Amino acid sequence: MAEAASFHYRAFLSYSHRDTTWARWLHSALEGYRVEKDLVGRETPVGPIPASLRPIFRDREDFSAGHSLTEQTSGALEGSQFMIVLCSPNSAKSLYVNEEIRRFKAMGRGDFVIPVIVEGEPGDPERECFPAALRFKVDSDGALTDEHEEPIAADARPQGDGKDGAKHKLVAGMLGLGLDDIMHRAERARRRRMRNWVAAMGVTTAMFAGLTVWAEINRREANVQRQHAVDALTAASKTANTLTFGLAKEFRDSAGVPAALVKNMLDRALQLEQQLAAAGQTSTEMQHSEAGTYLEAGLTLTAIGDRQGAFNAENRARQIFETLLAQNPGDTEWEPDLALSYMRMGDILLNGGKRDEALADFNKALALRQKFADKEPDDTVSQDGLAIAEAKIGDVASADGRYDDAVAAYDKSVAITQKLADHHPSPRWQRELATCYERLGGALERQGKHDAALADFQKRLEIAQKLVDSDPNNTEWQRDLGIAHGKIGDVLLATNKPDEALVSLRQWLAIAQKLAASDQGNDTWQRDVAIADYKIADALIASKNANDAVASYQKGLDIEEKLAAADPGNTDWQRDLFLTYDRISGVLSSEGKRDEARAAMLKAEPICIKLAAIVPDNPYWQFETALVSWTLAELGDNKAGRIPAIVVTLTKMKNQNQLSPAQAELLTDAQAALADPPAK
Fold first, then answer.
1. pLDDT score of 85 more than 90
2. Nearest to residue 151, comparing CAs of 98, 85, 96?
3. Over residues 328-335, mean pLDDT
4. 578 with 604: CB under 8 angstroms?
5. How confident is the model over 288-312, as pLDDT tens digits?
6. E-assigned strands of 476-571?
7. pLDDT of residue 275
8. What residues are paired with 11 via a beta bridge?
């Protein structure tokens, strides 16, 4: 093989254009890789180590006008030391990728082909990821033979090496070094960066302390000098924002970085802003910078789970923006930022269950956004903000059970978004419009207005179908389409049309199964299959087909058991598992299969007890625990021993005004059973 220095490209990146996102990531990662200085020039089996891995040939980056694709491809292949192949079901079916591999191997460079698995499964007849030219040898004439090869690949999938691990394997192969050497160097570099960042924070703290003192001295001097101080502090504040939040985001997005470290960095940044603000007379620009710091802190604190800290930060930003508006009542520059702070606070409050407070903040945001939208009716940003505020108000009303108010708010959101979608027919606005119809349809369904709900869900389905038709490989849009079919199935089932419901629900299931098969590690897609299965089972019960219903429940149960076992702390998985056991028990009981029904309910009981213990103040799970115990008692499982505990639980709930009239009936039945125990 030719010397490395004689090649124009370090590597040729071969991929299906359906995997362009992966190609962009890998191209950027390799070209941006920093080869340590002590390695440069070292002799290895693949030649002396270069100062960088650039350039990497990627056709969309490197093809230029005036040459045919074939000429440039051949030239790039001949001028590349390595070939990197992104392996997926897409590339396995690509004649283009297969031919590039065959040509490269025909040049005698088969040992310099490095596969990287990004999707699919080697050897799987439906999801094969290796192109044929990787799986078979070529002869002296460059033709594929029937002699198998076993490609040794880096695996960028989450269940494999992951993106970082795959990148390091590629780097090791292209530099001719051992993987351990590359990994150790990467870890040392990471630690060095962290030490540098912490040191930078220390320097920044000292810099601000000095600037604060300097500003205080100059505050007492002439106005010109004081203004210099304020300008210097303002510039320093902007620098602090850029440095601190750049570091905080990188830390936050890095695996294994403690949330406490990120929070400590944010606390120090906020303290610095307070010191700067207290240094004397400040400019509106500096106050805006301080508010921006708090807004960014709120986002980061929300991401690491510190809800109270996030609320405090967003609230402080709100206070600063209100002060700026009070100082400059004719200046509306701060109103969009103030509206944003209200929206952020509302989201935090709504997620924390404080719906009344959330509604107050959403209404304040709505008033500001309405004012701005009235001034700029053609501004898409202001109109979009207005639609989002209306939708949030609808969400609060829906959570409160005020469905008339929810429908009114959602109607407004739909009208605004429909206008945006009509004027800007891009996928973004179409998808937002579909989401609006889904929200509206859900509220109408809960009102019992099934025909209106069905009409909105049908509109949502039509949009989803158009988006999928425009890009069949977009998995998000495929999932949207499946869920739209499911929503229609729900309404049809609620209106006693089980056969029609089954058609829609089975369409949902087919899409969900296809997505789940394409990525076994995607828990959300696996759960979609389980939910579709038990929705189908509900429809089968309505069609008086209990045997098939139990079989469908069992399919969903098999998935839910795996999800729950893999993540025992996930209460959503546990709740799904409980509900499916409960449904199966009910069907079996109605069929007179009491022993099987009791066995299913005995599996549901410990899950229910566990969930009730996690949220002891939630009356739903307290009642469910009592109801499960009552059902088991009715099925002959220790009735005498269960009834007293049921009465105690329900009486406590009654005393706390947590029993509905229907639930109170169960307490009456349990008290009667306790007063009249079964004969021995």
1. yes
2. 85
3. 71
4. yes
5. 767 776 776 776 666 555 677 778 8
6. none
7. 58
8. 56, 82
pLDDT at 127 over 50: yes
Residue with tokens 């300097």: 214
281 vs 393, higher pLDDT: 393
* pLDDT confidence band for 356 (50 / 70 / 90): confident
Can you tell me the distance from the alpha carbon of 546 to that of 566, in angstroms, rounded to the nearest whole number?
30
Domain ranges of the chain: 4-177, 615-680
Residue 243 DSSP symbol: H
What is the C-alpha R_g of the chain?
31
On whether the CB atoms of residues 89 and 119 are closer than 8 A, the answer is yes
Q: Report how far apart the first and last C-alpha atoms of the chain are (Å, whole number).
A: 92
Q: Which residues pair with 82 in a beta bridge?
A: 11
For residue 271, the model assigns a pLDDT of 62
In angstroms, the CA 287 to CA 317 distance is 10
Question: Distance between CA 118 and CA 107 in Å, rounded?
Answer: 26
Other C-beta atoms lying within 10 Å of the C-beta of residue 314: 28
Report the CATH architecture of 4-177: 3-Layer(aba) Sandwich (3.40)
Structure tokens at 599: 């066995």
Given the DSSP bridges, would you call strands 144-148 and 136-138 parallel, antiparallel or unpaired?
antiparallel
Instruction: Say if residue 148's pLDDT is above 60.
Output: yes
Per-residue tokens: 476: 């998000």
Per the model's pLDDT, the better-predicted residue between 80 and 313 turns out to be 80
Length of the chain as a residue count: 680
Crossing angle of the two packed helices 179-219 and 223-252, in degrees rounded to 10: 160
Rounded-to-integer distance, Cα 31 and Cα 20, Å: 16
**Phi, psi (5° rounding) for residue 256?**
85, 0
465/482 Cα distance (integer angstroms): 9
